[in-house]
Design brief:
mainly alpha; MetI-like fold; 9 helices
Length: 210
């Protein structure tokens, strides 16, 4: 849960910032660069990113340990967090870019610009709220997936997480542990989807719950 929450926050911050920058400079070098990075990040799998990180930063530069939990030390969390967050950074950047471009071309944004509002107010207070809807929709399942562990990342970095225990239980035919982990994953999925539904009313003023 520590790694998943950290990776989700990192992916949201960096991905949304990249998407907004690309949308504000559409068809420019920044836009093409963000699109290229997002495409590469979404296509390179985690079982390639993790060994590459270990090879460069652990075995060549000796900046971080190769693997292990280390009692929850920050230096042991850096690699797993980066590995988990990179694919989601790419996805959030692409989602934010598309939704922000659509929001900036909407009629109420043109009206806000015609009224003389500053660019900061137009982008942050008006366009951003509408552009966040696809991000919120995707963040729910993404949070459930990250919080319940990753078999690949936990196995490569030797982290005692839910995904690794699920993999070991499946190999050992420990059906009780398998069913328990499935229940945990299902509970997290339902919980975060409920949070997403509630956040719709906060992000989008057109949605109201009675």
């Amino acid at each position: 849960m520590q790694l998943g929450a950290s990776a989700l926050v990192l992916a949201l911050i960096i991905g949304c910032a990249m998407g907004v920058a690309a949308a504000l400079r559409q068809n420019s070098g920044v836009d093409y660069g963000v699109t290229a990075l997002a495409t590469a990040g979404s296509t390179i799998p985690t079982f390639v990113i993790a060994p590459f990180y270990q090879l460069i930063f652990a075995q060549m530069l000796f900046l971080v340990p190769v693997a292990g939990w280390g009692g929850g030390a920050l230096i042991n969390k850096i690699g797993p967090i980066i590995t988990l967050s990179l694919p989601f950074i790419a996805i959030f950047a692409r989602l934010m870019r598309g939704s922000m471009i659509e929001a900036l071309n909407s009629h109420h944004i043109r009206t806000a610009r015609a009224l003389g509002l500053s660019d900061f107010s137009v982008v942050i207070r008006h366009a951003m709220r509408g552009a966040l809807l696809p991000i919120v929709s995707y963040a729910g399942p993404a949070a459930a997936a990250l919080m319940t562990g990753s078999i690949v990342v936990e196995s490569i970095f030797q982290i005692p997480g839910v995904g690794r225990y699920f993999y070991a239980a499946a190999l050992n035919r420990d059906y009780t542990l398998v069913m328990g982990t499935v229940v945990v994953i299902a509970v997290f999925t339902i919980l975060f989807n409920l949070i997403v539904d509630l956040l719709y009313a906060v992000v989008d003023p057109r949605v109201r719950y009675e």
